[in-house]
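Morning!

As promised:
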Amino acid sequence: MKIAKATGGGDFYESFSDLIFGTLIIFLVVVLSLIIQVQKTVQGMSIDVVSPNRFTGSTGDPMFTFFLLPGDSYGLDPEETVVVFLPLEVAAKVKLTPQAYTTDVELDVTELYRDDKLLWMTTDQFVQMAGGLTPQATLPNYETCPALGLNNEGFFVYAYYQLTKIDPQRAKQLNIGMMRDFMWGTDWYSDALSAQDQRDLDWLRTMDFGQTYNYYDEWLGGLNDGRVPRKMIDPFNNASNSMLDPPTGFRITIPQGTEKKVMVGQTSFEPDAFRMLLQAIAPGKDFVVECVDDAGKPLPPPRWVEDELLFPAGYDARVLKQAELQAGDD
Amino acid sequence: MQLLNPQRGTSFYESFSDLIFGTLIIFLVVVLALMVRLKVAQDNRDDDLDQEIAMNQYAGGASQTDWAMSFVLIQGEPRLAIYPRDAWSKIGVVRFEESNPVLSLAELFVKDPALIPTFDIEAFRGLTNGMSFRLWKGAVIITGLGDILTRMYAVQEAEGGALNGWSAQRLVEAVGGIDAGTHVENDRPTPAAAQARDDYYAFLAGPNEALPNGHPDQFFRQYDQLTEPIEPALEPTKNLPPRILFSVEGEGRVRLGRAVLTAAQFRGLLDSLSVGKGFVLEYEVLEQNKQYDDNGNEVLHPPSWVIKEVLLPAGFDRRLPTAEALEYLDRQRAKERE
């Protein structure tokens, strides 16, 4: 700022005044922008954290569906047992009244097995999940091989395995749906069979599936109180029940290092495998996926856990800490 | 500010400089105060979110949201029943302890048949209007339970309209001692229940020509007619997540689409849900229900009886954070990760 008729001798004050005045203007702008920012923040504070009219949750116990196979079905020792998890979208079809051409659980499961798209683990790995998986999900909600019927996925997979073992080349040509027809003894699809299909079906009928089933049933140790499931479920429940604070869903830890892995209890999962595990669960009341550190303290997960595991699997709802609802208590 | 030994005519610049300098100091203090306030505000905000939103917990579910229904015949009249998850999820499941969906249904029935809600066809079509398309598509039709519930009503009618003193196990035996469709060879219903079973399947098969025994179309002819008008009506909600939109029609009554349900019926519908990805239960304020708080803001949450009598007991006790809170949370966490 320059006064037109400065009379001299004011050089220092004049320059200093100009400098200070200019600085003042800059400060004015800064202060104004700061005020606006503070106002925005204060406004942000007035935003309700809790949505007043939107609710979520779930009823009943969490559940998942699995069946058991002898280890050689997955290239392990035949004495081993393999736990195979069923994706929920397939498991849900078990409940449906069979509707021609649309509900074919055995076909779905057998195809998933053939394409190696089912999550499986050994019983030891299952037991080691104790502490990382709610015991409510396994006690007593598990599914295994019941009497020959609609939901006999384990047997169908095992039968397919036996089939491929006997004659892989031939089995490759076979339509799995025909195997299902054979097992059900129905002819609803027969009209659509080609001559080759029919010959394959006839060949299938020479196989002794009854014997296969008996073997499977015997291996399982009976249908409702099988010794094989007991070997797995009892240690899991014992370990879970000894915990002071068992999880209400999945309690996961992320091992240190650059590898993308998730630990459920002492069992380690690659990202794809953990996603498949999530996809096998029907969440029940209070079911959440929580991330903790090695000491069991809450720990926000790394970004990749959200982006690659939780969100794609549908676990994208944030949980409010308040267990009791306050809003609405007029 | 006064320099020593001023010598001549500097009063204007000197005074002006002093004024500006003083003002600058004041501004500096103001800026510092604002920065402190900003920091405190941010800290408070983070604390609030940290207090209310669990930073390490995630809810949701894979797959679709399912629920179970089927036709049922009550005194010869067709109605639609909605089954609790506790019963329908047991279909096809083998458990160590017990695996009997019929027993679960019987336990509810001997207590009060209304615990398994049923609707006439128009009311059922009406309530589906409160669902989004994706929730409707999650309906699981369980004919086996429809058969069983029809038999239960027939047994009750044969007993003079009430099952006073009956145990659930006795009812299970009376309807045939089976577990909803499997082990049919063991089916030994009472005469009344057997007649109800035959009537039920005859109804499902419809008046058209006979189909081969066991053909699945036998089960679905009536459902085709039932559902025909439902899906076009839900077309506008096709892009929404599975959702129930409800409002209140006075104490103890809830509106879903075109239907008004009792609290018990609404609870029954919620009890049927197996929740999947993105499911939301949303309350809508009707014009006649509008209320305002002391600050003049519209009250958006449902009345307390809905929460206490329906939502909490049914397990829908989780509140969702607002979109604004989630955005803020995302921003904060992005900063932390940087």
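Chain B has a mean pLDDT of 83.

Hope this helps with the figure draft.
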